[in-house]
Amino acid sequence: MAAHADKNKPYIPHNSGASDGWSTEDEATATCFCGAVQLAFPTSGPGLVTTFVCNCTDCRKITASMFASNFTVDDKYLKHVRGQDNLSSYGQKETIASGHNMTNYFCKTCGTLMYRVGTQFPGMSILRIGTVDDFNLHETKLRPQREIFTKDRVEWLPGVEGAEKFEAMW
Description:
This is CENP-V/GFA domain-containing protein. This protein is mostly beta strands and 170 residues long. It contains two helices and eleven strands. It has a single domain (27-165), classed as Beta Complex (Metal Binding Protein, Guanine Nucleotide Exchange Factor, Chain A).
């Protein structure tokens, strides 16, 4: 992506089973790996609430990685373009730092985690930046502004440059 010069124009590589992702000045899509599930979301406020990287142990486990890159959307602005009936959910509160329930919504076909909802954040969904079809948004409008649970970050990862840091939840 670094070779793609103009970050103000959409850059939507063919990298999954879907080829119909899009983005405009105010809205964009997020699609699972197989293409069965697609969401549309706002790329600015008030619908786009915040962007962040989470290093908590749950995010590490659920992503099979060392962190999760996320953005929070007000549910009034989140649209299920297709595949809402193809989502499976799993929720629990035993390992959630706040003690509140967190429910994860996955594509039943390919297993992509599309978003999480938590009782601690009513009316909001936490989407994964990696599901966003326009890769330029990863570096521009969706660039993480905060990094949370830095106390759980692996030592070999320096963290998000320029992001506000929090040892736990902000």
